[in-house]
């Protein structure tokens, strides 16, 4: 397997004089990988550490596999870190499937070993057949972007990299190597159960592809590497353009300008959405697919000014006029009703405040929609600041009759998520006096008509 060493050097998987942690289950793939690395151990001055996890799924059988790995390492003078983990208990505690729980426990252990030996390289035994299965599974599931490239030869992990030197080889290559070297690996019977998706691809799809092209693993590997190169370039472009689209970026919420977003080429739009989802989720749920991205693109392209989508994990995407908000902040704004004393300051749940004070006529500055004047002699108290109610109407300045507050929100393009917390000021007779920042009623006093005013101000905190 001269190609094995050439691949390591070509892709700079690790350097000479390195400490390499090798994930070893005792199966043919990981055992062959460890054996191949042992062959260059002295020449490359490598320190090898085998890391084995007994998931305790199969009782005595899995424990025997752990003992086999320990014996193999002793025979070849390799340091071995082995750990038994009750994955079933972990899965139950965290409400996870056995496969997801196994992966989390295993990779957490790998991180511990990497730290203990101050290593930046974790070598795993994934091979060319695994690559084919992974790419096909992700295509069928509707994955997008880098995920479609399948298994990477080298990717960042913890404080270093995961490396996979066997991706150029098929399972048959590895089994032949094990027979030639008399390695006697162990076989996990669960790999034959068709209850698992991967095993069904392995049993029913892979043989057909190999029959069509015995070197199909090389074609899939080429597809993976070139797709990853293209995707990396497009990701750089997307990040550059998304900086002009973002309006707000917080821990649990991102807001974008829809018009600017729609001006981007469609490939960058898709990747822009993916960047936002990666940022908000951290780890993308497996239930999220290309269908969700296409649904959002459809929503943003429609003429209707508002709409929303519910994504997995409690993420909500809300379109409102020219803004699109991605948010986990699902808590409904509670209704509020405050008495507004003269003078006083009220802190509002929407991040604003309303101040109320008595001011002499000669001290009043220009008045816009964020301020409101009242004549203290004709004011009917108490002043109330509250959230909107069904059927709210206001008598607007310069307009006959009354207008629905709901229609004003629509006309002023107030985002849907802001309407429920928007303050409304009314007097003791129940007249709506003012929609702060938006509209005033006919009940506002004329500037200069009296010596003293009650002045209300609407300001951001």
Number of domains: 3
From the 3D coordinates, which CATH architecture of the largest domain would you assign? 3-Layer(aba) Sandwich
Strand arrangement in the largest pleated sheet? 3-2-1-4-6-5
In CATH terms, the superfamily of the largest domain is HUPs
Catalytic activity: cytidine(34) in tRNA(Ile2) + L-lysine + ATP = lysidine(34) in tRNA(Ile2) + AMP + diphosphate + H(+)
EC number: 6.3.4.19
InterPro entries: Lysidine-tRNA-synth_C, Rossmann-like_a/b/a_fold, TilS/TtcA_N, tRNA_Ile_lys_synt, tRNA_Ile_lys_synt_N, tRNA_Ile_lys_synt_subst-bd
Keywords: ATP-binding, Cytoplasm, Ligase, Nucleotide-binding, tRNA processing
Name the features.
3 domains; Uridine Diphospho-n-acetylenolpyruvylglucosamine Reductase, domain 3; 461 residues; five-stranded antiparallel sheet; Rossmann fold; Phenylalanyl-tRNA Synthetase, Chain B, domain 3
Describe this structure in words.
It is found in: Cytoplasm. Belongs to the tRNA(Ile)-lysidine synthase family. ATP binds at residues 25-30. Pfam families: ATP_bind_3 (PF01171), TilS (PF09179), TilS_C (PF11734). One of its GO terms (biological process) is tRNA modification. The protein is of the alpha+beta class and 461 residues long. The chain folds into three domains: 2-228, HUPs (Rossmann fold, 3-Layer(aba) Sandwich), CATH 3.40.50.620; 243-327, 2-Layer Sandwich (Uridine Diphospho-n-acetylenolpyruvylglucosamine Reductase, domain 3); 337-460, Phenylalanyl-trna Synthetase, Chain B, domain 3 (Phenylalanyl-tRNA Synthetase, Chain B, domain 3). The chain has 14 helices and 22 strands. It has helices at residues 2-10, 28-39, 60-75, 87-94, 98-116, 128-141, 171-180, 197-212, 216-242, 258-262, 266-281, 290-301, 405-411, 416-419; strands at 19-23, 47-54, 79-84, 121-123, 154-157, 160-163, 246-249, 253-257, 306-310, 316-320, 323-327, 337-340, 344-347, 352-360, 371-374, 383-386, 393-394, 403-404, 424-426, 432-435, 439-440, 452-460. A six-stranded mixed β-sheet has the order 3-2-1-4-6-5, with helices on both faces. The protein has a five-stranded antiparallel β-sheet with strand order 7-8-11-10-9. The chain has a five-stranded antiparallel β-sheet with strand order 12-16-19-20-21, with no helix packed on it. β20 (432-435) and β21 form a beta hairpin. α4 crosses α5, α6 (128-141) packs across α8 and α9 packs across α11 (266-281). The longest helix is centred in the middle third of the chain and has 27 residues, at 216-242. It is elongated. The model has no long low-confidence stretch (mean pLDDT 91).
